[in-house]
Design a protein that fits this description.
Elements lengths: L7 H12 L3 H14 L4 E7 L5 E6 L6 H7 L25 H8 L1 E7 L6 E7 L2 E2 L3 E3 L4 E7 L15 H18 L4 E6 L2 E6 L6 H12 L1 H6 E8 L2 E8 L4 E2 L5 E5 L2 E3 L2 H10 L9 E2 L1 E6 L5 E2 L10 E2 L2 H18 L5 H4 L2 H6 L25 H9 L14 E2 L8 H4 L5 E6 L3 E6 L2 E6 H19 L4 E11 L2 H9 L1 H5 L4 E4 L4 E8 L7 H13 L7 H15 L10 H13 L13 E5 H7 L4
Parallel strand pairs: 1-8, 13-16
Antiparallel strand pairs: 1-2, 2-7, 3-4, 3-7, 4-5, 4-6, 8-9, 10-11, 11-16, 12-15, 13-14, 17-18, 19-20, 20-21, 21-22, 22-26, 23-25, 24-25
InterPro entries: DNA_mismatch_repair_CS, DNA_mismatch_repair_MutL, DNA_mismatch_S5_2-like, HATPase_C_sf, MutL/Mlh/PMS, MutL/Mlh/Pms-like, MutL_C, MutL_C_dimsub
GO cellular component, one term: mismatch repair complex
Keywords: DNA damage, DNA repair
Length: 602
């Protein structure tokens, strides 16, 4: 078959296959055009998941008669002042969106520029343009797309259900709305109730308002502001506290010069920044905005412009990690349990009083003569009904001084008052009370001490008088011996003791008396999941986290009052003490005002 030039309609349909993948792609391209036109309000309507109809109206600059005639031709754009593709300041620049959409659907454009006496309209069906006609429109542009892919029916087979396509459209609009909080967005359609995101004030407060409207009140309540800048590159935004997590990385958003992009760079950087706070199967929620010179980033690497390439990707990654770590360290004592009212809401009564309840039938109803309380008390409390109030032996250690000193009450975590269930320390502050998980709290303290010792002059170790022999399967032994040098840096010295066994000769002094067999098994399990490409620092932190868990005060251990107070003081001096290194909160604080509300005193 000889080589021949393809007709323009076929060329446009081929190009549409790259740009118009699904209805959400159409919404993305048209909404980006509205943003580039300087719109302050954008209304989006869809029907049938965008397959039957898409309508987008904006109050932007609009187009003149001459611009409208060129806008639906391939590679015609008003967004490039010259031919330098490295100085792109707009979301769109290819000039392919409108002709690609017109090649596979029925496209109608009505627009009015301020210099025109009235609006103009143009339609394109299957790549065939109509004449430009006068129309009525006060300002901006209205674009109507109907019967998507009617010119290429085979593409319809690859679309999902209307609900799924509508959700994809919603996600596209959400990302664009997060990128531009100064623009009001309205999204409506038969598949959903209309939702409007009002324009927010400029600055960080307005950005957080928009992010909270989209990501939810729980994100707004736990958001930490982050910022880092170097060599003309600025990374700023908001990151959720470690206690607000997701099962996947879909809650991580990256915007580069106002453009929503998907980049594996952010996943690795966020994972590194949160490595001290979260378990491996949980992912944080973050929204980061990168601003840099347009010549330092290439947006022309993907037809849909959803990917970018940085000239100095290492710098951007380092700034993301630094910004997140700095923000998390600054707010290290915050947890979801202390910031979003979760603790208080869990205390609210979950039952309603029974109807027609006769209080005289209550086991607490006094029986017998009432003239003298002392004489009646013995009779009343001897009633069989009082057995309902027998809760057994108390699990709280109440042996403690009656009145704590004033200086302890003024400390952030207060004065220890008691220990309940041999697991939780209850302390009193000047304006409330604090409940501390003793194991989680001590785990964070030991972990931070191990990190500090490693950075300073190595972890202090204790030599065992008699080496402890631990029997394991041969594969596990080999795995441990391969990492013997890394373990030695934390004071855990092991060596081979024949097939299927290792001898433990030294352990970190911070851990005190520890179960070496259990510690080695846990370490081996974690090492099995390591990738060889995992940086040494990350591997060492995994080792430290495992050791900290084994060297911490265990649940079920009864503590003396001075031990409880000492633990509280160490928590106050330890960074990131709001949660253990598995992401669980270490304490819950209840303000006196909230407690009074629970009992109807306020």
């Amino acid at each position: 078959m000889p080589v021949r030039q393809l007709p323009e309609q076929v060329v446009n349909r081929i190009a549409a296959g790259e740009v118009v993948e699904r209805p959400a792609s159409v919404v993305k391209e048209l909404t980006e055009n509205a943003i580039d036109a300087g719109a302050s309000r954008i209304d989006i309507f869809t029907d049938g998941g965008g397959r039957r109809r898409i309508g987008i109206t904006d109050d932007g600059d609009g187009m003149t008669h001459g611009d409208l005639a060129l806008a639906v031709d391939r590679h015609a754009t008003s967004k490039l002042d010259d031919e330098d593709l490295l100085r792109i300041r707009t979301l769109g620049f290819r000039g392919e969106a409108l002709p690609s959409i017109g090649a596979v659907a029925k496209l109608g454009i009505t627009t009015r520029h301020a210099s025109e006496p009235h609006a103009w309209s143009l339609s394109v069906e299957g790549g065939v343009k109509s004449d430009i006609m006068p129309a009525a429109l006060s300002q901006g542009t209205r674009v109507e797309v109907s019967d998507l892919f009617y010119a290429t029916p085979a593409r319809l087979k690859f679309l999902k259900t209307d609900r799924t396509e509508a959700e994809a459209i919603r996600e596209v609009v959400r990302r664009l709305a997060m990128a531009r909080p100064d623009i009001a967005f309205t999204l409506a359609g038969e598949e959903r109730a209309p939702v409007t995101w009002a324009a927010a004030l400029p600055g960080a407060s307005g950005r957080l308002t928009r992010l909270g409207d989209i990501l939810g009140a729980d994100f707004r309540g736990s958001a930490i502001e982050v910022r880092s800048e170097r060599e003309g590159v600025v990374v700023e935004g908001f990151a959720a506290a470690p206690s607000l997590t997701r099962a996947n990385a879909l809650g991580q958003y990256l915007f580069v010069n106002g453009r929503p992009v998907r980049d594996k760079l952010i996943i690795g950087a966020v994972r590194a920044a949160y490595s001290d706070y979260l378990p491996r199967d949980r992912h944080p929620v973050v929204a980061l905005f990168v601003t840099l010179d347009s010549r330092e980033v290439d947006a022309n690497v993907h037809p849909a412009k959803t990917e970018v390439r940085f000239r100095n990707a290492g710098l951007v990654r380092a700034l993301i990690v630094h910004a997140l770590k700095d923000g998390l360290a600054r707010e290290g004592k915050r947890t979801a349990a202390n910031s979003d009212g979760a603790a208080i809401s869990s205390f609210r009564p979950s039952f309603a009083p029974r109807a027609n309840w006769d209080w005289r039938r209550s086991p607490a109803y006094p029986v017998g003569p009432q003239s003298g309380f002392e004489g009646a008390a013995a009779t009343a409390f001897a009633e069989p009904g009082q057995a309902a109030f027998d809760v057994g032996t108390p699990t709280a250690d109440v042996r403690f001084q009656e009145a704590p000193t004033a200086d302890l009450l003024d400390r952030p975590l207060g004065a220890a008052r008691t220990q309940i269930h041999e697991t939780y320390i209850v302390s009193q502050t000047r304006d409330g009370l604090v409940v501390v998980d003793q194991h989680a709290a001590h785990e964070r303290i030991v972990y931070e001490k191990l990190k500090a010792s490693l950075a300073r002059n190595g972890v202090q170790r204790q030599i065992l008088l008699i080496p402890e022999i631990v029997e394991l399967d041969e594969a596990t032994v080999e795995r441990l011996l391969e990492r013997a040098e890394e373990l030695a840096s934390f004071g855990l010295a092991i060596e081979s003791f024949g097939p299927g066994a290792v001898a433990v000769r030294e352990t970190p002094s911070l851990l005190g008396k520890t179960n070496a067999a259990s510690l080695l098994r846990d370490l081996a399990e974690h090492m099995a999941e390591w990738d060889e490409a995992l940086p040494l620092e990350r591997r060492l932190m995994h080792v430290a986290a495992t050791m900290a868990c084994h060297g911490s005060v265990r649940a079920g251990r009864i503590l003396k009052p001075e031990e409880m107070n000492a633990l509280l003081r160490e928590m106050e001096d330890t960074p990131n003490s709001g949660q253990c290194n598995h992401g669980r909160p270490t304490y819950v604080e209840l303000k006196l005002s909230d407690i009074e509300k629970l009992f109807g005193r306020r």
